[in-house]
Amino acid sequence: MRYIPNSPEERSDMLAAVGLGSADDLFKSIPSDVQLGRELNITHAHAEPEVIGAMEEFAAKNTAATKPSFLGAGVYSHF
């Protein structure tokens, strides 16, 4: 599944559809003392090919692919 972000207009339309004026209105029911209160400390956005490449590098480190795996053996549809 591809990630396709919504435009600001689409976000406004979605908020209006549920009767809200802003994204902050979504979180009003959460007590402020348990809200983070700051931006998340996450890395910058990556292009899809970069993410796929990183996942392929992680997968290449998986040693289970080089050894026999019996995980799920005997599992099949039962009626």
Distance between the termini: 31 Å
Unreliable spans: none
Could you say which overall geometry the principal axes of the C-alpha atoms support? Answer: elongated
Q: What is the quaternary state of this protein?
A: single chain
Coarse structural class: mainly alpha
Count of DSSP E strands?
0
Strand content: under 5%
Order of helices and strands: HH
Biggest sheet overview: none
Helix content: 25-40%
Description:
29% of the residues lie in helices and 0% in strands. It has a domain at 1-34. It is mainly α and 79 residues long.
Blueprint (SSEs and pairs):
Layout: H1 8-17, H2 48-60
Summarize the structure.
With about 80 residues, this protein is mainly α. The protein has a domain at about 1-35. The chain is built from two helices and no strands.
Summary tags:
mainly alpha; 79 residues
